[in-house]
Amino acid sequence: MYARSRAWLEELGDQFWLRPALVVTLCILLAVVAVQVTSVPGLDEEIAQAWGYSGGAEGARALLGAIASSSIGVAGTVFSITIAALSLASGQMGPRLLRNFVRDARNQLALGIFIGTFAYSLVVLRTVRTVEEQPFVPHLAVSGAILLAILCTATLVWFVHHIAASINVENVISSVHDDLNHAVTARTLDEAEPEADEMPGGVPVRIGGNRYLLAVDADGLANWAEKHGVVVSLTVRPGDYVPKGISVARVHPPQDDAEQALQNALTFGARPVALQDIEFYIRQLTEIAVRALSPGTNDPFTAASVVERLGDTLCQIAGRHLPTGMVRRGDTVSLLQRVSDYQGICDAMFDIIRQNASGSAFVLIRLLEVLTMVCEVEDEPARRQCIREHAELALEEGLRSLQDRDARADLEERWAMFNQQIGASA
């Protein structure tokens, strides 16, 4: 249930309206409290004389009306700027990165401050009464509206700066790279686990369909398997799309309530999330690189920047261990999960970039340089062999697609440097 709750919170973060709605609610409550406080006899006059608004009812109405109209107008501008930024990000960096912009709490809070100021001003405005209506001016509440107006001014300046910075491709790459490194830290281990056992056959179990697998409650499923004396082997992993009718697990020996147990342990959603999928952010980075290498964009510098960040992540993985996906209860294996191994991570990082970098000497040369640096910090023979395979593929792609003699010579020089490094650190 913990994994399902986290998946629910992850999807809740995609709701662009949630934080603005909370800010508006807070502003309305603040307005009600401010009006109630200033209703205390004598307190309102002290506030007005000390530092707050000291004008009359007509001035308060004019002031609150101006703040309300201007804040809702700026809120429309903020929303328009946000939509323009989303369109630009979708066109240049890929539609899957829209999720990062929509989830940005700073964009949501900026919109919430402007709409909240509008709601605050309206709530206070309805309480202002002139002489003909038994006069009442909530000086503290009006002073609060002035402070919110000043906050809106500062927020507008900050928001324009934030949007300008957030659509810079280097900042986007850096942000996704930071998320990837955090995922690597969370999903890798300090010590190696025992190798996963082979599943002894089993009966396929089918649930769900037409959805992405978001999270697995491994502990809950392993506890159920131990209780019933069975072994569960998942055939899908978080991030996979599960078509209707496809089995998600095999259970040995067969168990009647296996389908219900899997229903409780597996969480599905309409789109993948990064909750338990270490390759989620890798796909986002590679999408930026592939779009940069498209003929319409032709930006090898952005693609090379992505390759550099991916190389840094492999350096982060060096010295750490990937989980095997085996969950034990005592001395018995209860659950086997499909997990990302080092080969799969490298393939996800470099295959699609290399395939789209055909003819781009700059990117292929930089790819070899990055793989050389990774070999400097990676000591495990199996991983070094994986890195070597990708270096060979980059060399073959370059020799096949590059026509420029100097570019081919540079590529072969980097290949020689790679072999020198991998031999020196062997």
UniProtKB/TrEMBL annotation:
InterPro entries noted in UniProt: DUF2254_membrane
Residues that span the membrane, as ranges: 21-43, 63-88, 109-128, 140-160
Lineage top rank: taxon: Bacteria
Keywords: Membrane, Transmembrane, Transmembrane helix
Keyword Glycoprotein in annotation: no
Pfam families: DUF2254
The keyword Magnesium is annotated on this UniProt entry: no
Protein's UniProt name: DUF2254 domain-containing protein
Organism of this sequence: Terrihabitans rhizophilus
